Amino acid sequence: MADAGAQPPLPGDGADDVFRTIFLAYPDALLVVDSAGLIAMANAAATALLGYSVEELVGLPVEALVPQQVRSRHASYREVYGQAPTPRPMGRRMDLTAQRKDGSEVMVEIALSPLQSHGHPFVVAAIRDIGAYPRVQQALQRARYSEHLAQVGRLAVDTRDLPVMLEHVPGIITTALQIDVAAVWLLDARRQAFMLVGGVGLLPGEHIGTRMDNAPHTPLGYTATSAEPVVVSDYRHENRFAVPPLYLECGLVSAMAVPLSDRGRVIGMLSARSREVDRFGVEEMRFLESLSSLLATSLQRVQSEEALSHSQRMESVGQLTGGIAHDFNNLLTVIQGNLQVLEESPALAGDGHAQQLVAAATRATRRGAELTGKLLAFSRRQVLQPSTIDPHTLLQSLTGMLLRTFDQRIRIEVDAAPGVPCVLADPVQLESALLNIALNARDAMPDGGTLRFHLETCDALPVTLRGEHPTTSRGSYVAIALSDTGTGMAESVKERAFEPFFTTKEAGRGTGLGLSTVYGFVHQSRGAITIDSSPGHGTTVTIYLPAMRAALAAASEDEVVQTLPAGLRVMLVEDDAEVRKVVQAFLESLHCEVVAAATARQALAIMSAQQQPFGLLLSDIALGAGMRGTRLAAEAQQRFPGLAVLLMSGFPVNPAPDHDGDPLRWEVLRKPYSKAELARAMARALAST
User: Cys staple from 49: which of 29, 144, 262, 447, with CB 3.0 to 4.6 Å?
Assistant: First the structure.
């Protein structure tokens, strides 16, 4: 065995110098190891790779270069190899690691070659740092990027808190790309500026909430316009957009920006900046694009969950208010009915003061009914109750309210063409629709402007925004247009304006249900709605509703009463005793013969037992436990063909069909109602039989 501190004996001719020259100059790390596992020779590449000097390596057990966890196994491998040494080239294994002097590890390839010198066995170990291979470096880089993408994926699954996501993403970018500055930007509701929502390594003056104009001359605006990733190799030679001087002052040289997109529409930006020239290449771009896709998906999920949660809350509120409204409307029916009885009482006919008190109380009950209707319209659980509406009067009332509530910088104008007729629509829903559009107009004019209402008559419905041709396009219609001088809409926004849950407002400021609700109401009212808008030129939303012909104007109470058959026999079914008493009084004052029952079973038994037929069944829909009014109506008409049916309801929702699934096919009178409204509804029910 050679002396541990000496070089091994070599052939004593000119090959000695050649061997040593090649050995020392070889680019791979070379170690000559004796049969005892001690290092006999080492070249300069070995010292560079392993962190030892030549003097420290010579005589060092080769196991000292093996990680601790595999050191014992390595000794047995070396012993087995020494029994039958054969050349083993590099590239067979890729999972070997060498331990450096400082304890760090490096991935290596090792080639072994047996060597005999003066009868002494040696092994030459050639060691190569595979991390220096371009392909390996690229693979390691991709693996590192994949791990960071997986981290974002886990974060997206684990958290439902969007601010937490936005807070962590910039740190993940800087760690993965090993750069200085990263940020997440989101476009504001009007798409006029990007707002900084998360960042790492921010420059002086940059903070959460910092804004950058969405204009082609800004770095982010240029990227948004192109809608593709943009790479800057060197800010000092950039001429596509204006580079903020602060970037160069802080030593930033290169950058990359990747759009955040939602269904092809840019909603934000990921940006990365570095102090190295030409820092970003294809792999970095792919990483940021993948990250952008993940983040955009998370944003869409959060928005969808918020919209679903809001919808569920609205549904719960609607169910709750529906139940409350039923009881409240029954109370109002009793109050309003008794007030009307008092008003018509001979005892109060000459008492002016008492008549004033009764009239004031009656007005209060009507306001209570309107309030209930508005609450239910908000929760979208209102049945349409079309009636004759004077649009001039409606606009006067609406604009008066808007003037008291809007910013004084917003001027409101009303332009009504002469002779505009009344319209046939639900007054509560129409007022809600106009208010919704007016609020959108207000939001589009943050610095003030003009909101203009225009009324005119037209002969046909227009083709709508969606290219729809209304089923009934001819006739007389009233157009109610609301125009603002606000920011306007891009074509892509205008096309989706009526989609449920679509909104351009910031989180928490809009649900995306406003215009979709208006759209549904207008089409249900046999009308149409259009939008005319462009960026910077304001928006005009026009609602078209059927005009009310003079011949269809509401008849007076006396005229309606005259159309009711004298002595009409009415089967009244109402489970609330107080309501039943009021309705019975109304019917008797209309010269009807009334038989009352509290349940559907009682009503059927009475109708079957009496020989004289009934002309009208007047029943509440919700009759407590047992048969509902709709089922009663179906069975009664089956037993007594020609029987007219009028249903009453304190519920604002469309009554559910019976067990057989038949849809509702009878007139429904909404509580509370006056005697005149009851008379008109009875006349319609009798006319339709």
Answer: 29
- Assigned domain for 408 exists: yes
Q: Give dist(CA 62, CA 70) in Å, integer.
A: 13
Q: Rounded to an integer, what is the distance from CA 604 to the centroid of its chain? A: 51
- Mean pLDDT over residues 476-498, rounded? 81
Q: Is residue 177 part of a domain?
A: yes
Measured between alpha carbons, how far is 586 from 673 in angstroms, rounded to an integer?
11
Phi, psi of 654 (to 5 degrees): -65, 125
Cβ atoms of 170 and 197 within 8 Å: the answer is no
The pLDDT assigned to 138 comes to: 65
Q: What is the pLDDT of residue 652?
A: 52
Query: How do residues 508-541 score in pLDDT, each as one tens digit?
Result: 444 334 566 677 778 777 888 888 888 888 889 9
Within this chain, do residues 150 and 106 fall inside the same structural domain, yes or no?
no
Structural domain span for residue 431: 383-552
Q: pLDDT band at residue 137, thresholds of 50, 70 and 90? A: low
What is the pTM assigned to this prediction?
Answer: 0.42
The least confident of 65-69, 140-144, 374-378, 588-592 is 374-378
Are 151 and 188 contained in the same domain?
A: yes
Which residues, at least 6 apart from 332, have a Cβ–Cβ distance to it below 8 Å?
365, 368, 369, 372, 671, 672
CA dihedral 508, 511, 515, 518 (to 10 degrees): -120
CB 269 within 8 A of CB 194: yes
Handedness of CA 105, 111, 114, 118 (dihedral sign): negative
Cα separation, 610 vs 317, whole angstroms: 45
pLDDT score at 553:
42
Q: CB within 8 A of 630, min separation 6: which ones?
A: 621, 647, 655, 656, 657, 658, 664, 666
Residues 516 and 569 in one domain: no
Q: Which of 305, 308, 298 is nearest to 166 (CA)?
A: 298
**How would you classify the pairing of strands 644-649 and 667-670?**
parallel
Read off the pLDDT of each residue in 286-301 and give the average, rounded to a whole number. 83
Sort residue 83 into left (φ over 0), alpha (ψ -120 to 50) or beta.
Answer: alpha
The total of structural domains in the chain comes to: 4
Q: Which of 234-238, 292-296, 644-648 has the lowest mean pLDDT?
A: 292-296
Mean pLDDT over the full length of the chain: 79
Closest by CA position to 109, among listed 88, 99, 94: 94
- pLDDT value at 91 more than 90: no
Q: What long-range pairs does 305-311 form, CB within 8 A, spacing at least 24?
A: 305/160, 306/507, 307/501, 307/511, 307/512, 310/511, 310/513, 311/501, 311/513
Report the SS3 class of residue 572: strand
Q: 406 and 442 in contact (C-beta within 8 Å)?
A: yes
Cα separation, 259 vs 268, whole angstroms: 6
> Among candidates 63, 74, 92, 495, which has minimal Cα distance to 264?
495
- The residue from 501, 526, 552 where one domain ends is 552
Q: What is the pLDDT of residue 596?
A: 93
DSSP class of residue 592?
-
Residue 659: pLDDT over 80: no
The answer, yes or no, to whether residue 464 has pLDDT greater than 50, is no
Report the alpha-carbon distance of residue 128 to residue 45 in Å, rounded.
9
What CA dihedral angle connects 308, 313, 315 and 320, to 10 degrees?
170
Please state, in angstroms and rounded to a whole number, the distance separating the CA atoms of residues 276 and 395.
Answer: 64
Q: Is the pLDDT confidence value at 321 over 80?
A: no
Does residue 31 share a domain with residue 76? yes
- Beta strands 105-117 and 120-129, pairing class: antiparallel
Average pLDDT over residues 275-286: 90
Q: Is residue 375 part of a domain?
A: no
Q: Which of 132, 160, 182 is the last residue of a domain?
A: 132
Q: Are residues 48 and 127 located together in one domain of the fold?
A: yes
* 397/344 Cα distance (integer angstroms): 30
Helices (H), 251-385: 282-343, 352-378
